[in-house]
Amino acid sequence: MASRFIAPHLAEASYNGVEPLETIAKEIGLPVEQLIKLNANENVYGLPEAVQQAVANAEHHVYPDPAQVQLRAAVAKLLEVQPENICCGAGSDDILDIVIRMNQPKAMVTSIPTFGMYKFLGSVANVPVVNVKRKDDFTLDMDAIIAAIRDNEEDALIVMDEAYAEFCDSTSMSLFGTYPNLLVARTFSKWAGLAGLRLGYCVADAELIKVMMAIKQPYNVNTAADAAGLAALEHRDTILKTVAILRAEKDRLYTELTKVDWLRPVPSDANFVLVEVQRLPAQTLYQGGDLSNYVRISAGKPEQMDAVLAAIKAIEKEYHLYAPIISM
Ligand SMILES: Cc1ncc(COP(=O)(O)O)c(C=O)c1O
Predict the structure, then answer these.
(1) pLDDT one-digit tens code per residue, 20-39
(2) Which SUPFAM superfamilies does this UniProt record tie to the protein (predicted)?
(3) What domains lie within the chain, and their CATH numbers?
């Protein structure tokens, strides 16, 4: 009878995080060394030596700086804004959580299918989430989005989630400064390989940032993440070389998948390719994911992409999927 202590809106709240490789290895009965992990859009190259050193040398027994002075200054310098426009968090997930607590919106409008965190955070904060379906080619239905915003909020905060900004050549940052209702969220998880250390940030009007800094968990960016973030920015050019390889491998993966009769890859500006699986249950390729008959493959090292393409060929052979089925 302890359930009476649980807020009713939380009954359904839960988030399906990515399973660690060890868990998957156990489930399928293979040694973990034989598996390649490409299900979470991480940077498979990991951290450069200098960043690892910075993490090792951080003073882990000391509380991190709640004002994030050095980190905010370094991010601000990179983006040519002021530190007063930056708030850092434990991943961009944390940033989104702080934004929702700061804004307490009547509703959140998202475009589905999308990142599951938005729905999760909405359900935890008891904010209704209005889902606008993407067009058949997965592009945004801007007219429907604008209509949904008008129906729910007269004056909405627009959050641009730019988690994959370093993997494409477009950003909304040029609009920053013109629109006080624009907030851009970014992460170190994808380009800098800091997914496990948890570091993200946002750029927004100083008035919003002031409140975000005041209401966030004071030590949300831990000492190791703080040190890693500073070092990653210092060695950004080196890290961006791995991003360039991953971008090229993503393009190669996309091109190769277009040649497979029973797969339909969706064009991607991120570090992964979403693929519609035809003539087979998508679970044949990947036991997970919540988009029916699609799988998502992260870009990896060239040899890892070769292994993925070889596995697809093996599946093709096993299930006799060479020629398109002609129905009469
Ligand atoms: C669109 C999008 N936003 C945000 C995130 C979360 O990033 P972080 O690790 O910084 O919380 C992800 C991670 O997969 C993502 O795909």
Answers:
(1) 889 989 998 999 999 999 98
(2) PLP-dependent transferases
(3) 19-45+240-316 (3.90.1150.10), 49-105+157-234 (3.40.640.10)
